[in-house]
Design brief:
By secondary structure, this protein is of the alpha+beta class. The chain folds into two domains: about 1-25 and about 105-185, Orthogonal Bundle (Topoisomerase I, Chain A, domain 4); about 35-100, Gyrase A, domain 2 (2-Layer Sandwich), CATH 3.30.1360. Helices cover about 60% and strands about 15% of the residues.
Length: about 180
């Protein structure tokens, strides 16, 4: 029974770590990453569709991304969606696609990105703590249902806390690495 609870906790906490890594990909560092466009949706025949599902996206160098729509009539719609997304760049159309030229990041932009990385880290920690609470609630329910003894529940709570501490430490390390990457010129 305890092993099932530990397994549940580790699986869900690992998912929180993966979500944190995905969030980090949306942050811009010194070199552009096409994942800055992940949250952009284009109006495609009346329904909001992710940009990467209506166009091919490539980083052609450290400061330029090209968006080549599969249908030429989407160029204006893609330009509008990117402009509305406010990602810090103005889209330029060349008739074939949209080019995004990212200027070098200023110190303030780097600090702002580092602040966002910390916020993502805090969000991940909250998720991990919620999973800990859920695991502890399962332990208490097992005690109440007389499936586990009081001593086993105490041991279980200690182990749940150790697992939680390990994952919180992992989040702190990931945030620190991302901050160093963002603040490095």
């Amino acid at each position: 029974m305890l092993d099932e609870i530990y397994k549940f906790e580790k699986e869900h906490m690992s998912k929180s770590i993966e979500a944190l890594k995905r969030d980090f990909q949306t942050l811009r560092s010194g070199k552009v990453n096409i994942s800055v466009l992940d949250n952009i949706h284009v109006d495609y025949y009346g329904s909001p569709t992710q940009l990467n599902q209506v166009a091919s996206i490539m980083a052609i160098d450290a400061v330029t991304i090209t968006v080549s729509p599969w249908e030429k009539k989407l160029i204006k719609e893609i330009e509008r969606a990117i402009a509305e997304a406010n990602i810090g760049v103005n889209p330029n159309s060349d008739g074939e696609g949209v080019k995004l030229h990212f200027p070098p990041m200023t110190v303030e932009q780097r600090q702002e990105s580092a602040k966002s990385a910390k916020a993502f880290g805090e969000k991940a920690k909250v998720a991990i703590r919620n999973i800990r609470k859920e695991a502890n609630d399962k332990l208490k329910k097992c005690e109440k249902d007389k499936v586990l003894s009081e001593d086993m529940v105490k041991r279980g709570e200690n182990e749940v806390q150790k697992i939680t501490d390990d994952f919180i430490k992992m989040v702190d390390e990931l945030v620190k690495q991302k901050e160093n990457e963002l603040l490095k010129v």
